[in-house]
């Protein structure tokens, strides 16, 4: 099971009146930066929930682009879909699979 966060999820566009793309990108980037700081002592993982019909709107894509540029520029994160995370887990911890 891969953690699924609701705070770093594009559903926020539907849960808050007047939620702007910049609100989403600022929040996700702040969460990422905090986890990078915490990650200095223990590995961290952040999931960003994205839905085609929500994030796929032009103004919202700007927010996603901003998030991905920030994370990529950090040089400290692996951006991967769930299937790649699951495969990595299986390869690294085969004895933890039930």
Described by strand count, sense and barrel closure, the largest sheet is:
none
From the spread of the alpha carbons, the general shape counts as globular
Q: What class would the helix/strand composition place it in? A: mainly alpha
- Give the CA-CA distance, first to last residue: 12 Å
Average pLDDT confidence is: 88
Beta content comes to: under 5%
What helical percentage do the residues reach?
A: 55-70%
Describe the protein's architecture and organization.
With 98 residues, this protein is mostly helical. Helices cover 55% and strands 0% of the residues. The chain has helices at residues 12-15, 21-38, 52-55, 58-74, 82-92. The N and C termini lie close together (12 Å). The mean pLDDT is 88.
Keywords summarizing the entry:
98 residues, single chain, 5 helices
Task: Summarize the helices and strands and which ones pair or pack.
Elements: H1 12-15, H2 21-38, H3 52-55, H4 58-74, H5 82-92
Helix pairs in contact: 2-4
Q: Would you summarize the structure shown here?
A:
By secondary structure, the protein is mainly α. It is built from 5 helices and no strands.
């Amino acid at each position: 099971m891969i953690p699924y966060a609701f705070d770093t999820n594009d559903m926020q566009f539907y849960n808050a009146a007047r939620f702007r793309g910049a609100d989403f990108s600022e929040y996700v980037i702040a969460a990422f930066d905090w986890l990078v700081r915490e990650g200095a002592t223990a590995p961290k993982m952040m999931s960003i929930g994205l839905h085609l019909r929500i994030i796929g709107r032009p103004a919202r894509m700007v927010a996603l682009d901003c998030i991905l540029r920030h994370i990529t520029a950090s040089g400290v994160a692996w951006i991967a879909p769930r299937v790649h995370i699951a495969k990595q887990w299986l390869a690294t911890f085969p004895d933890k699979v039930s």
